[in-house]
Amino acid sequence: MTSRRVAVLLANLLFVSVAANLFLAGWISSQSFYRPPPPSGPLAGIDRLMKERLSKDGYERIHALIEQVRPHFHEMESGTRITREKMIEALEAPQFDKPAFDEALAEIMRTRNEFDSWTIHNASEALQLLGRDDRRAVGRIIERGPLGPPGPPPPPR
Predict the structure, then answer these.
(1) Within a domain: 84
(2) How many angstroms separate the Cα of 71 from the Cα of each of 27, 47, 100?
(3) pTM above 0.85, yes or no
(4) Residue 71: what are its φ and ψ, rounded to 5°?
């Protein structure tokens, strides 16, 4: 092989190597750019629906309520997560620990009931300040439910 042929061969190999490396680098780096966004949570969905369907004044009042509820919601969620771990421990114990399971379940119910009671009280205070059209829109959102309008029932088995 002549030195010219060796130079052309090396240049071609270098070109293929650079192209392959750039392709791999692009493919690997693109994996971090195209991840789906983290879930926004139920409060963000409610906030978005209210913004779309209420008057500006009505939305501002409900948004203030949502922002007031948000820290309590996260506190309740973290409390029930810890209690759920206790339930799982009771379930996975060599011998089922019924008293521990029942106590954890009762604690989850107490936490949820306290949060729901607090939220309902504050929501009723905010809702009484809304106009009729905004209250009607809130009613339609409640009717719709958290997962959207109900679909047809599942087929019988």
Answers:
(1) yes
(2) 39, 15, 28
(3) no
(4) -65, -35
The whole-angstrom separation of Cα 119 and Cα 43 is 12
Q: What is the DSSP string of 138-155?
A: HHHHHHH-TT-S--PPPP
Q: Report yes or no on 8 lying in a domain.
A: no
The answer to whether 140 and 133 have CB atoms below 8 angstroms apart is: no
How far apart, in whole angstroms, are the C-alpha atoms of residue 115 and residue 43? 14
Q: What is the distance between the alpha carbons of residues 131 and 110, in angstroms, rounded to a whole number?
A: 34
3-state helix, strand and coil shares in percent for the chain, rounded to the nearest 5: 80, 0, 20
On whether the CB atoms of residues 43 and 119 are closer than 8 A, the answer is no
Query: How do residues 120-142 score in pLDDT, each as one tens digit?
Result: 888 888 888 889 999 999 888 88
Q: How far apart are the first and last CA of the chain?
A: 76
CA-angle at 49, arms to 122 and 150, nearest 5°: 100
Distance (Å, rounded) from C-alpha 26 to C-alpha 21?
8
Asked whether the CA dihedral 71, 72, 77, 82 is positive or negative, the reply is positive
pLDDT for 35 equals 62
Regions of the chain with pLDDT less than 50: 39
Instruction: Write out the residue range of the structural domain in which residue 117 sits.
Output: 42-144
Provide the domain count of the chain.
1
